[in-house]
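__Protein archive entry__

___
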Amino acid sequence: MQQVNIHAAKTNLSKLIEKAVNGEPFVIAKAGKPMVKVSAYEPPPDPAGRVGFLKGRVEVPDDFDSMGAKEIHAMFEGVE
């Protein structure tokens, strides 16, 4: 892995970033001591991409909104 000092990194930042994006990470050092590693950004998977993944595989009954309403009402009202 390439190591560059801070001054060289500032001078050649565009070239170094292009290398990192193309899979060549590098280390920025200060007085020969490694300080940071620079590599290409990899965004996390999009959780919104999972919306609708069961479409066509699950059937929702027409009375879904009222299913168990009598039992739930009885539990809250204490009625048998």
